[in-house]
Design goal:
The complex is a heterodimer of chains A (about 120) and B (about 110).
Chain A (H helix, E strand, L loop, with lengths): L2 E4 L4 E4 L4 E3 L1 E4 L5 E7 L5 E7 L5 E4 L2 E4 L9 E3 L8 E8 L9 E3 L3 E6 L1
Chain B lengths: L3 E4 L2 E4 L5 E7 L5 E7 L5 E7 L6 E2 L7 E2 L9 E3 L8 E8 L7 E2 L3 E5 L1
Parallel strand pairs in B: 2-11
Antiparallel strand pairs in B: 1-3, 3-8, 4-5, 4-9, 5-6, 7-8, 9-10, 9-11
The chains are: A mainly beta (about 120), B mainly beta (about 110).
């Protein structure tokens, strides 16, 4: 079945450092790919998404490119801030993957940014 | 900004009690979901609904039940709470099956 694998954390960076969180997926069909973020004490919120190969999603300085050839959707940010400290979830939605199009999440990566 | 609400935000309750976690959305979304989030952060889909009078079980078996009598309301009930039910419960909704999901703030449940 479909699955999402993302790098394990926690990840600790200094402010203004470059961030990469790796995410790879396995899917039967042509999934849409998402990054969600969960700030402390809150629910998840959509950070960015891409619906087809080579699409680039971007928001708040974060970006990720849908790479079909490597089945990847890595999250990047050029200069992180303390306020980016959160848990980041990679997810996919595949209407042909047997999950009725429901989101399949990775296990989450906790990011801590130090001043 | 998405309008999806969960109450209570925190609940401490004794073993054997019946509890209902409330979830409401004002966006008119058809599809709604309940997730259980363990302390290691991993999310597990426990219930979802395509619309009124529709309820489906998710990937993780759960002793909880849900109902969907109104589009905007998707409560989750535990008939007899146990310490193993201690977790965070997140509700979400989406306009359709493949659309972005909007999450509520969550309910943290502690069963003593």
């Amino acid at each position: 079945g479909d699955s999402v694998t993302q790098m394990e954390g926690p990840v600790t960076l200094s402010e203004e450092a470059f961030l990469t969180i790796n995410c790879t997926y396995t899917a039967t069909g042509y999934p849409s790919l998402f990054w969600y973020v969960q700030y402390p004490g809150e629910g998840l919120q959509l950070l960015l998404k891409a619906t087809k190969a080579d699409d680039k999603g971007s928001n708040k300085g974060f970006e990720a490119t849908y790479r079909k050839e490597t089945t990847s959707f890595h999250l990047e940010k050029g200069s992180v801030q303390v306020s980016d400290s959160a848990v980041y979830f990679c997810a996919l939605s595949d209407p042909f993957g047997g999950s009725q199009g429901n989101l399949i999440f990775g296990k989450g990566t906790k990011l801590s940014v130090k001043p | 900004e998405a309008d999806i609400y969960q109450t209570p935000r925190y609940l401490v309750i004794g073993t054997g009690k019946k509890i209902t976690l409330e979830c409401s959305q004002t966006m008119g979304h058809d599809k709604m979901y309940w997730y259980q989030q363990d302390p290691g952060m991993e999310l597990h889909l426990i219930h979802y609904s395509y619309g009124v009078n529709s309820t489906e079980k998710g990937d993780l078996s759960s002793e909880s039940t849900v109902s969907r009598i109104r589009t905007e309301h998707f409560p989750l009930t535990l008939e007899s709470a146990r310490p193993s039910h201690t977790s965070q419960y997140l509700c979400a909704s989406s306009e359709g099956g493949l659309e972005t999901q909007y999450f509520g703030p969550g309910t943290r449940l502690l069963v003593l």
